[in-house]
């Protein structure tokens, strides 16, 4: 790949020391963990509520867990479902499955039985490693799936000994906490910790998977339809980890300068963003990964006193809550050198507040499950631009094309669909050749993934997202991008949050509907006031024709507003 500033204008905006291109090692993803165990055997790899696991201990547990899976009949290419919160056992199960050439399928442990049944059936998983609460649901639908064995994980077993024993105290607080962690399962249920404790370590000469082998089936969030599994190879994931370490420089610091990161794992590992920046990135750079089963401000601040963090992968609302707590506390967050945010743009006020309380940087990243997931990011320098998606990662190219004709490349400054090409781009959707064909296009001798995101490329190669094609509203023949109307309404007094969607509108095709969450002190907002506020900045055809007041907006597990769900709720309430 050539590194021409003329053809790749973003290269001029890279932070000092960041290579334009990377070499992807010809190795499985598990090689990172093995190297870290060799280099830093006594360093804490994991910290779960004060219970630490060194790299040497983690590598030993992974080898034992790999034997467990082999004994359960799992072989190369078999799918292993993991439905766990962020805890030590999640990391062990993830790397154990990959080590023997199996394919990991990550699931949200809070899914309903029906949602789990669909994904387990679709992936063809033969073993499911589940949190006890999730195991209850999987056992209900096991006969509808190919799952042969459900292995339950007692979450409390990953706690420090004293905290685990405290769960048995005859006090209401202990009983409540125990009920959130544990569930009652049928006699004969197979338990993860017991199996791992009894197993022998996997033989060192056991065959490794190849770099091109399938490593992960990651189901997309389903914001535009039924979730489908994106197929990601070891090479895809290794490439993205190498790109991330090159972008941050963390691996160079760890190896050459002897320092190391403390990564706070508040993002769910079953989501592609949390999986890459925590499960894989942290292991490659020999970081200490602090595990949080869910995001909780008090838990983060408590951990910060015990083991100060240096890197926080997050979504903007998390930064808002932590910054507010630091100012009100006060709490010391100055150990954080940088936070990388995704899923939504970082508001300027959010970035400024975080950088004020930490002295570090708030950096925006962009990607999708189909790109392993990170494809663009703002530089870790004064060149960063809050609100922008950022610059293409090393060895990553982007094009802006016509929304209706992805073969027509548009010049810089014009609005169009973002295409991405690079070693982190997936090979397609599991058992969905037609949808794969719709998502991947060949241009200029490369394979590109269509993102469905409408962007503009600015000077210096910075990319700005302006909307989603699939959420575009067509009214009276005109195209309305929801985010344009939303951006205007967010500045309206009394409006705390907003989502704009399209509903059937008779002769118009669709009508623009604004769903508002009002601030507590708001005296009331009506449709005429909304239209009057918007008409100075929004085309007349894009003005809302219906107003709905909501208590809050439905969001994904990582905080992204789900416009599709908003639309369904508005229709149901009509």
UniProtKB/TrEMBL annotation:
The keyword Ligase applies. PROSITE patterns: AMP_BINDING (PS00455). Residues 485-560 form the AMP-binding enzyme C-terminal domain. Residues 33-430 form the AMP-dependent synthetase/ligase domain. GO terms for molecular function: ligase activity, forming carbon-sulfur bonds. The keyword Lyase does not apply. Keywords: Ligase. Signal peptide: none annotated. It holds the Pfam family AMP-binding. This is Acyl-CoA synthetase (AMP-forming)/AMP-acid ligase II. It comes from Sanguibacter keddieii (strain ATCC 51767 / DSM 10542 / NCFB 3025 / ST-74).
């Amino acid at each position: 790949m050539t590194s021409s500033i003329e053809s790749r204008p973003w290269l001029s905006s890279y932070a000092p020391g960041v290579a334009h291109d990377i070499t992807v090692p010809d190795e499985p993803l598990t090689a990172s963990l093995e190297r870290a165990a060799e280099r830093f055997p006594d360093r804490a790899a994991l910290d779960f509520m004060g219970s630490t696991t060194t790299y040497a201990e983690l590598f030993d547990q992974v080898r034992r867990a790999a034997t467990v899976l082999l004994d359960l009949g799992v072989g190369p290419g078999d799918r292993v479902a993991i439905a766990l919160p962020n805890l030590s056992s999640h990391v062990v199960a993830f790397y154990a499955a990959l080590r023997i050439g199996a394919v990991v399928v990550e699931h949200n442990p809070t899914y309903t039985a029906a949602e789990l049944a669909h994904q387990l059936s679709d992936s063809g998983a033969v073993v499911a490693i589940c949190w006890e609460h999730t195991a209850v649901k999987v056992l209900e639908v096991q006969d509808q799936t190919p799952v042969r064995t459900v292995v339950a994980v007692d979450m409390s077993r990953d706690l420090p000994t004293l905290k685990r024993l405290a769960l048995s105290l005859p006090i209401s607080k202990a009983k409540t906490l125990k009920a959130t962690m544990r569930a009652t399962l049928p006699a004969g249920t197979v338990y993860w910790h017991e199996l791992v404790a009894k197993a022998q370590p996997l033989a060192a000469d056991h065959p490794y998977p190849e770099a091109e082998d399938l490593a992960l089936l990651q189901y997309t969030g389903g914001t535009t339809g039924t979730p489908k599994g994106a197929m990601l190879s070891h090479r895809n994931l290794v490439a993205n980890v190498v790109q991330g370490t090159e972008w941050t420089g963390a691996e160079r610091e760890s190896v050459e300068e002897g320092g190391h990161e403390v990564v706070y794992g508040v993002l769910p590992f079953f989501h592609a963003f949390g999986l890459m920046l925590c499960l894989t990135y942290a292991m490659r750079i020999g970081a200490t990964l602090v595990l949080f089963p869910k995001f909780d401000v008090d838990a983060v601040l408590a951990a910060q006193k015990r083991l100060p963090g240096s890197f926080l992968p997050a979504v903007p609302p998390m930064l808002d809550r932590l910054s507010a707590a630091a100012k009100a506390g006060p709490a010391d967050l100055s150990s954080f050198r940088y936070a990388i945010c995704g899923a939504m743009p970082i508001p300027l006020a959010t970035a400024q507040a975080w950088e004020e309380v930490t002295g570090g940087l708030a950096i925006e990243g962009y990607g999708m499950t189909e790109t392993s997931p990170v494809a663009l990011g703002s530089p870790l320098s004064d060149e960063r631009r809050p609100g922008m998606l950022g610059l293409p990662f090393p060895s990553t190219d982007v094009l802006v094309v016509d929304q209706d004709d992805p073969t027509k490349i548009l010049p810089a400054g014009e609005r169009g669909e973002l295409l991405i090409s690079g070693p982190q781009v997936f090979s397609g959707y599991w058992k969905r050749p037609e949808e794969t064909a719709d998502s991947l296009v060949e241009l200029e001798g490369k394979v590109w993934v269509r993102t469905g995101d409408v962007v503009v490329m600015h000077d210096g190669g910075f990319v700005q997202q302006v909307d989603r094609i699939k959420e575009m509203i067509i009214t009276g023949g005109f195209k309305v991008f929801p985010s344009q109307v939303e951006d205007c309404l967010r500045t309206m007094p009394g409006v705390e949050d907003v989502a704009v969607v399209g509903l059937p509108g008779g002769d118009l095709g669709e009508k623009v509907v604004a769903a508002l969450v009002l601030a507590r002190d708001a005296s009331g907002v009506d449709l005429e006031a909304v239209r009057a506020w918007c008409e100075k900045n929004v085309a007349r055809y894009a003005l809302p024709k219906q107003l709905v007041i909501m208590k809050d907006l439905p969001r994904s597990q990582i905080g992204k507003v789900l416009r599709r769900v908003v639309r369904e709720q508005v229709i149901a309430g009509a």
